[in-house]
Amino acid sequence: MSNIGIEKLNVYAGVAAIDSMELFRGRDLNPSRIQNIQQQRRSLGLGFEDPVTNAVHAAKPIVDMLGADADRIEMVIVSTESGIDYSKSIASYVHKYLGLGPQCRFLEVKQACYAATAALQMAIGYLHSGVSPGSKVLVIATDISLVDGRAGYAEPSTGFGAAAMLLGEDAEVLRIDRGAFGIHSFETMDSARPTPHADIADVDRSLFAYLDCLLNSFRNYRARVPGADFTSTFGYLCMHTPFAGLVQAAHRKMMRDEAGVVDPDAVAADFARRVAPSLVYPKVVGNLCSGSLYLALASLIEQREGDDPVRVGLFSYGSGCSSEFFSGVIDARSRAALRPFQIGAALDRRRLLSFEQYEAHLDATLDAIAPVQSRTIDLRAWEAFLPRERGRMLALVRIDDYYRQYEWI
């Protein structure tokens, strides 16, 4: 049996957050609708943070843990919707500030919220090929939100941060089932990021595409994996989580249409047992785009009861749209592998902002990936968020002739 899969997994979700009710209050949104999205808090970016700093903060603890073995990282793949250049990849900056060696491929991939799973499958194929025994691949999903009041009810559920995964031949976190996957993709304009200052979305089209892709990607999985059953094959389920309310609706639809279970109490019990543990972190971070599924995986591993080996069904969806249902096994080593990164504790340490503070910083946040020739970031505006010990946080400090300059502060 192959043991190729995710060896390490870490999530970085910024240093600031806002309560959803505070954002509802500030935007004068109907508070009764917060139950639909089930969002409690969302992470926020500040003016010195961008997709590069997010990626480095998520991946650096993994690289540091490897020590000399970091030289076995032969590929760095960064997935993002928040690209900063039409040619140069974010991965080049990330490679530099992680201090990785020159014998390394790096590239950037894009397909909305599906891209990290595409990168993961590329990496798994490379590792299974056996052309470089013992090699490792670093996959990092990193994004920033570009929403403001124009986004309406989508603003409170939009996240900020990165998820970093080290893939290799000793899968401590998730042993991925070889050849067990289902795919469903087609072109649709359900969302887009046409400028560095705006996300747009056709909400209804996106929701229906998500539900359609979940059903059909699972059916394609079932065609490839004889005997696969939605209710009995998987002890837990993790799904791409734009907001927890959508995941609950998707689970309910699958229980009805695929499993034939219509009793509301039975559906609710199954959701509470197999899905709810994966939503604890997404509910306090928001949508991490292509990192969303892997934030949910981290949540599941740390929130589930017990450490017995169990198969997890994972659904990845990206607008536009591409989707995949695949599976893997977690066990006692999974929780132990995440423990050093203290993901939950880091989420608890975020500083909560009032709506007025959020609004005051919003313009600088939206400028994070703006293509400007020159810019200097005055860190004094965010002094309260900076670490007391120098060298603990990477910050964007200036842009010189379009070249981004970062410093450890």
UniProtKB/TrEMBL annotation:
InterPro entries: HMG_CoA_synt_C_dom, HMG_CoA_synth_N, Thiolase-like. Gene3D superfamilies: 3.40.47.10. Coiled coil: none annotated. Pfam families: HMG_CoA_synt_C, HMG_CoA_synt_N. Keywords: Transferase. Belongs to the thiolase-like superfamily. HMG-CoA synthase family. Residues 269-364 form the Hydroxymethylglutaryl-coenzyme A synthase C-terminal domain. GO terms for biological process: acetyl-CoA metabolic process. This is 3-hydroxy-3-methylglutaryl-ACP synthase. Residues 3-171 form the Hydroxymethylglutaryl-coenzyme A synthase N-terminal domain. It comes from the Bacteria. GO terms for molecular function: hydroxymethylglutaryl-CoA synthase activity.
